[in-house]
Structures are given as structure tokens and as C-alpha cells.
Write a structure and sequence with these properties.
The structure is a homodimer. Chain A is an alpha/beta fold and about 325 residues long. Chain A has nine helices and 18 strands. In chain A, strands 6-5-4-3-2-1-18 form a seven-stranded mixed sheet. The first copy, chain A, has a seven-stranded mixed sheet with strand order 7-8-9-14-15-16-17, with helices on one face.
Chain lengths: ~325, ~325
């Protein structure tokens, strides 16, 4: 079950020769989710050898041009390359209107269905889910309606200990009950405590994407203990006033957010064109949160499985 | 008087990892004209270190997405970087509508004026001119309204021969007449033949941009003896039927066009994603026209001055 994020672009509004504007690919077990889609995203997908026909869901955080202008070109290339499977686009109404207008203007009947899911202003809730995985959304604070995305594995059932089934002669129903955490009462009345036949499942992994936003300490609760937090750090403290004016965060604030939410790793990105070298931004974020890394185009972040040990409430 | 073309993208509809879709910069004596503006054009301008704030005119050949999708991002970046000088956009009505819709949608009041010049279907005439340079337009044959652009120096006046003014004691009025090609009649009735006091000016240089189009031999007259012809060669003869269906040209036809128009140099481009290697396309074009080169992203074509010798009708 691979859980991988590939940074396709980590510049803020203006691209540089080394940094494209914002886009990322989230790959959960070969299911591809594109997160924002700035100009040049299709080129970056090719550059990093990611088959873009496998993307079935595109999520757009907000309607600023450095987050969605790659959509028409990407959708057009998908069509020209013979795509048949539907594409789901989760986006603010303005972006949906932009794509509709583009498609009407170019008179290009698609070979595949494009299914729009409007993300309404201040929406908080589920965008997509299946039995293993869930994508949630919550509002950020920016100059236009903007949302964060949480990509999270569902909690898995308890796992049966090796040999427990044979050792205790458990039935299918008893196995089901054991996986739900129940003790098992045998026919002779003997009770098998749950913890003696099960182990804890793997920790459900969580990735949080937060850009563009002013510093929002009150959302720490929502993203608590995420494995990875991608947080914008458009500016350093040297441009703190500009960050406030434009409702962006500084690298220091990104570090504070990671610390408040007790995440495992912080990735900072969405850098202003001012910062050709991001060392100062990294140092700032690290002063608040040690396990910080800097995003760069092509960076791959794998979130590994983490086995849990029994906690006191399970023993 | 530099006359330079920089290829920013020479792929057809679908970009590859090495080729961006269509855009070019024409630099005539430090006056920058952007010709088509596909997705990623602003990145390519940065990559090739071309100051995009110096562009004052953008010409869009047609409304297919691989020729204009870079416009909103480029205009947005120009604005964010503090542009104040106006931008002239010459484009079909659909592209103008697309940009208008984008600007309304994003509520971004520009700091600079964007002046639209609609290129109507089948328009043939002048798009822009000044005392030295003129840009003409004529229709091509494609699945939508599409135009070629001719960038041409104006014919210069005859040049006075070194020492002629002093030798014959010419007045300002006589110099003007001589530059216009008249013989000079001195006060004593003596006639000074024009060719003895003037030399021919430098050859007016001409660049022709023809993409996307079916093979159009009947336009050869219009582009006769151009210094450089950029002609699309989306396909090779191996996809001749596909070329006809989509109203594109093969490399062989591009070569034929160059030969018919007796141009000095042919550059082929707008290659289908099928051709990762363009050797076969080059060979095809060369079989019809020897002085052919293949476009590649970043290729620079300088058109040098060419001094003319006296022709019989001047001697």
C-alpha cells in the first residue's frame, strides 16, 4: 500500500526557472489524486514519468491562477491521448465555470466524462472515500475561498495473532467479533481476552495539504499527528507584513503549525519568487519544528507503514 | 538591427518532456513580438532568459489550445511583477473571449492595459507597422480559422555613396531625390546618373510563420524569397492521411512550400508527439528543400543583413 506524494510544483504565483507553480500528485495504492494543477502540470507529470491517464480525481484548493491554469491543457491532452474513463474535478465554482467556458469555446467534445464537484465556500467534510481511504476538506483563511485537504487511511480492524485461530478453534463469527475488539466466549464458558488473540493494526497514515493560508493555529486539532503536513511558507519573517497583507504564512508560522499539530514531518513550499535560495526559510521553520524539509519540484515523499505497539487501553 | 527568432516550443498539441507546445519570440531590434503562447510559455521565456516584460505585442495564430493556453499565466505574472506598459493582443475572437472571461472570473484588476485586436476569419492585411518594420497576416487552411504572420523590414531608401555629396556638391533636396532613385540635374545642366552616387540599400529581411495548415501551394507568391520560413511539419509521409484529415502538413510538403516560395531557409516544427526523433522528418523536407533545419526548444535563428549588389535595372 504505497502512500506517496510527488511535488510537481512548489512556487507561489510566479514560476521560476527551477520551480513551477503549485501541483502535487498523491498516490495511494496506485490510485492517483492530483492536488492543484498550475500551468505546466502536464509537463511536470511527463518530466517525472507519471502516467497522467491514471489520475481519476483532481482537487483544486482555490481559484487563484497559480493553482488551476494547467487544467485545460491537461484535460485536452488526456482527451487527445484517447482517455475514456471519467475524471472527477473538485473545485470552487469559478474554476468549474472557467473549464466549462473553455470547453464551450473550443468546441471540443470530450471522449471522457468530466464530473464536476463544487467545493462551496467554507465547506468542511468528505470529498471522496472508499473502504480504505478518505479525503476530507476544511476551509483555510485566504483572500478567496480556499480549502485544505486531508488524505487519510481509514482505521483498520484488529489483526488476528498468528496461530490464534487454530489454537482456540475460532469460528468465522468469532474471528469477526475478535477483529472488532470483543473478547470471545467459548462454548464451555471460557473467556478468551481479545488482546491474547489480536494485535493492533497498522497506524492509519495521514497527509495534510495546507496552501494558501494565513497562519491558522485553531485548525491544529483537525490535523493532529498527521504523518506529513505540507504547509505553505510563501515568505520568511523578513516579509511578515507582506504575508499578513496577502493572507499567506511565513516559514516560522508553518513550523509553529507543525509543532501545534504534533505532526511527524513538515514540508514547506509555495515559495515566493524572492527566495531563489530557501535555506533561510528552512532554518526559520526548523527553529519551531525540527523535522522540516523543503519542497522542490520532483521531490518524492513516501509515508511508510508504522506498526503500533499495544497501548495501555488495549492491554 | 537584430532580427532574431527564438523557438520557445515546437511540439504540436501534446507536449513531450523535451518539446513544449507552440510559442516563439521574434525580436526585431529589441522590439519583442510573442508569436503564439502555449501553456508553459512563461516558463520557457524564463528558461531562455528572455525578459518578458519587454514583449508589447502578442499574436495568436488560432484558437487551438496548444497555441494560447499560456496567455492567462503570462499576463498574470507580468501584472504581479509590476508591469505598467500596455500589451497588445492580436487574436481570434474566441481567444479574446477566453481572456476576458478569465479576467472577470479572477477579479484581477490589471496594472497595465490589455488592448485587444481581433483577427477576423480570413483576414489578410497589416497587423502592426512602424517606419522600419511591418507585420502582415494571411489566412491558412486549418480546422478552425488560422493565420500566418509575415514579419518584414520595410524597403530602405538608396544609400549615398561615400564622398558623393562632397564630390558633386549636392544639396539636401538633391540628396533626398537621389535616395528616391532620381538622377540629379546640376545647375549647369549636367546630369549625374543616380547609380553613380548611390548604392542599393540592404535587402529587407523577411520571416514567415506558417502553422497550423494544410499544404497550401497557392500562397507561395505571398511569401516569396523570405529569408526564413517556419512551416509546420506535424507529420511525415507515413501519416499523410492523418495530416489530410486534421489539415496539417507533412515534412515533405513543408519542403515543397519552401522550394515553391524560393525562401532562403526553412525551419520545420510543430511535431506530433509520435516523433521523438525528428531525423526522418528532416530527411523528408530536405528531399525537397536542402536548406532545412529542425526546430527545437531554445533554438535561436538570427537573420543577418544581406547587402545587395546592383541589379541590371539599377545599373
Amino acid at each position: 500500500m504505497q502512500f506517496r506524494i510527488t511535488i510537481l510544483g512548489c512556487s507561489s504565483a510566479i514560476p521560476t526557472k527551477d520551480r513551477y507553480p503549485t501541483a502535487q500528485l498523491v498516490d495511494y495504492s496506485d490510485r492517483y489524486f492530483l492536488v492543484d494543477c498550475a500551468e505546466g502540470t502536464q509537463m511536470q507529470l511527463r518530466r517525472y514519468r507519471i502516467s497522467f491517464q491514471r489520475i481519476q480525481h483532481i482537487l483544486i484548493s482555490h481559484m487563484h491562477s497559480d493553482h488551476f491554469l494547467g487544467l485545460p491543457g491537461l484535460l485536452s491532452s488526456m482527451d487527445l491521448l484517447g482517455r475514456k474513463i471519467p475524471m472527477h474535478l473538485y473545485a470552487p465554482s469559478e474554476v468549474i465555470s472557467f473549464i466549462r467556458h473553455y470547453k464551450e469555446m473550443t468546441h471540443t467534445p470530450s471522449n471522457f466524462e468530466l464530473i464536476f464537484h463544487e467545493i462551496k465556500n467554507q465547506f468542511e467534510g468528505i470529498l471522496w472515500e472508499n473502504e480504505q481511504f478518505i479525503i476530507r476538506c476544511f476551509p483555510l483563511r485566504h483572500s478567496v475561498a480556499c480549502h485544505a485537504f486531508i488524505f487519510e487511511e481509514r482505521a483498520r480492524p484488529l489483526r488476528m495473532k498468528k496461530n490464534a485461530i487454530i489454537q482456540y478453534g475460532l469460528t468465522i463469527e468469532q474471528i469477526r467479533l475478535a477483529k472488532e475488539g470483543h473478547d470471545i466466549i467459548k462454548a464451555d464458558g471460557k473467556v478468551i481476552p481479545n488482546h491474547s488473540i489480536t494485535t493492533l493494526p497498522m497506524h492509519p497514515r495521514k497527509y495534510v495539504y495546507m496552501t494558501d493560508t494565513a497562519f491558522l493555529p485553531n485548525v491544529a486539532e483537525r490535523i493532529l499527528e498527521a504523518d506529513v503536513l505540507y504547509h505553505e511558507a510563501t515568505f520568511g519573517q523578513d516579509f511578515k507584513i507582506r504575508a499578513e497583507q496577502t493572507q499567506h504564512s511565513t516559514a516560522l508560522e508553518a513550523g509553529k503549525m507543525a509543532a501545534l499539530a504534533r505532526v511527524k514531518k513538515l514540508i514547506i513550499g509555495h515559495f515566493s519568487v524572492r527566495y531563489t535560495n530557501t535555506d533561510s526559510l528552512l532554518a526559520e521553520a526548523k527553529s519551531e519544528f525540527t523535522d522540516t524539509e523543503v519542497a522542490f519540484d520532483g521531490k518524492v515523499i513516501d509515508i511508510p507503514f508504522a506498526y503500533r505497539t499495544f497501548s495501555s487501553n488495549h492491554c
